[in-house]
């Protein structure tokens, strides 16, 4: 078995990989999950995927993400995705906060990161890309979840969590999934019915705000209002779609899913619910690529970084640790490229 990556495939994906191997032109969708600093363990894999696999692409590739996943995919949607990823990585690691920062201070830092990620031409690249079709998931909040007072927000999201214990569908009482996208009439996600969903075209006026909203963690960042979109306050898309347990459409190609875990959690409120499983039909044609236990053991503290690092580590310690995570992540990219070059990916895949 491969020593730095874990490859898991649904039955349709496994059959396609055995017949053809992994080819960029066979991929229909790339999802990107929420998870904050966890994305850093995928940095080397992202560069390998985004820098080579899709170079000769011509037909549309649908990229759908929530929170930090949408920011990663916004890099892929630019002319030079590897350079955009490098800018994103450097700016993300360089976050600095005083003790107990206010939502305004955290929002200011995230705006700085977005500026670096997009650079001078990123917005135009995304909107005019010849084949990348970006979909940014946000959560439109109703009632107390839409207020800026942190105590009211807490109560609003407590109600969300209590209802979610019974059914994910109860989230629709408080939240609406709003997908900002560059797919026009070709979106494979237009028929999502598991939760109330609205689809809004990405434009120059809303792209940056949609990305900011998708990563606006409740009670940590300020909510975002987006002109031209449904009225209300938008927050982190991971609240409704944490790891994206979605109907990825009716295509026959692969859903190529670089992920920091070998499993998928549907929504943010499901993280502690061991009985809340994904819907198997959504992942029949998915190839999930995750760090192996051996790679995770090499990371600082033997774990994937998370939001707790901001509180548990001093800035200098955190930055050193995160840079080490990025360096170790290169092993994932190198191993993936080796399996691609030798045509042995199917030999290392296990059933998802």
TrEMBL record:
SUPFAM superfamilies: FabD/lysophospholipase-like. It comes from the Bacteria. This is PNPLA domain-containing protein.
């Amino acid at each position: 078995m491969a020593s730095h990556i874990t490859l898991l495939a649904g039955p349709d994906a496994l059959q396609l990989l055995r017949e053809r191997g992994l080819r960029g032109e066979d991929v229909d969708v790339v999802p990107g999950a929420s998870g904050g600093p966890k994305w850093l363990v995928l940095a080397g894999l992202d560069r390998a995927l985004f820098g080579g696999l899709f170079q000769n692409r011509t037909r549309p590739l649908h990229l759908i993400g929530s929170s930090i996943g949408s920011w990663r995919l916004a890099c892929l949607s630019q002319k030079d995705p590897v350079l955009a990823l490098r800018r994103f990585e450097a700016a993300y690691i360089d976050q600095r906060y005083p003790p107990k920062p206010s939502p305004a201070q955290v929002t200011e830092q995230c705006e700085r990161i977005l500026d670096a990620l997009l650079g001078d031409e990123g917005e135009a690249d995304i909107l005019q890309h010849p084949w990348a079709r970006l979909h940014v998931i946000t959560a439109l909040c109703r009632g107390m979840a839409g207020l800026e007072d942190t105590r009211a927000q807490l109560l609003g999201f407590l109600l969300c969590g209590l209802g979610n214990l019974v059914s994910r569908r109860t989230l629709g009482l408080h939240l609406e999934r709003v997908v900002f996208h560059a797919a026009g009439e070709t979106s494979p996600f237009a028929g999502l019915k598991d939760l109330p969903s609205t689809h809004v075209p990405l434009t120059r006026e809303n792209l940056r705000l949609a990305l900011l909203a998708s990563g606006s963690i409740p009670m940590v960042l300020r909510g975002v209002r987006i002109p031209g979109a449904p009225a209300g306050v938008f927050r982190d898309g991971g609240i409704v779609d944490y790891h994206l347990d979605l109907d990825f459409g009716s295509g026959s190609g692969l859903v190529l899913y670089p992920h920091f875990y070998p499993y998928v959690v549907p929504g943010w409120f499901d993280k502690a619910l061991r009985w809340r499983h994904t819907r198997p039909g959504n992942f029949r044609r998915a190839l999930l690529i995750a760090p192996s236990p051996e790679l995770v053991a090499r990371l600082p503290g033997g774990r994937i970084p998370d939001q707790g690092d901001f509180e548990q580590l001093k800035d200098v310690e955190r930055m050193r640790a995160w840079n080490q995570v990025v360096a170790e992540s290169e092993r994932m990219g190198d191993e993936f490229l080796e399996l691609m070059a030798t045509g042995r990916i199917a030999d290392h895949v296990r059933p998802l």
